[in-house]
Amino acid sequence: GDLLTHSRATVMQATPGMWRLLLDTRWKGRAGFKALVGGESLPRDLAHELQTAAGEVWNMYGPT
């Protein structure tokens, strides 16, 4: 979480499992950060946690 915070990244794409690991490190996110979630289905509880931490949460999972 520290590298993500210090890099001042504005967007990150990861699987739900990776987002859970990041949130488990007590990453706080920030307003204006865009979380892209894909690779597998996004559980509702994780979506809510990410909405609290990030400015935007985009569910990228599904047929293309």
The radius of gyration computed from the alpha-carbon positions, rounded to a whole number of angstroms, is 11 Å
N-C termini distance = 30 Å
Overall average pLDDT: 90
Largest sheet: 3 strands, parallel
State the total count of DSSP E strands.
3
Provide structural commentary.
- The chain has 64 residues and is α/β, with parallel strands linked by helices.
- It has helices at residues 2-7, 16-24, 44-53, and strands at residues 11-14, 30-37, 54-59.
- The protein starts with a helix and ends in a 5-residue tail after the last strand.
- The mean pLDDT is 90.
Summarize the structure.
The protein has 64 residues and is α/β, with parallel strands linked by helices.
Essential attributes:
64 residues, alpha/beta, 3-stranded parallel beta sheet, 28% strand, globular
How are the secondary structure elements laid out?
Elements: H1 2-7, E1 11-14, H2 16-24, E2 30-37, H3 44-53, E3 54-59
Parallel strand pairs: 1-2, 2-3
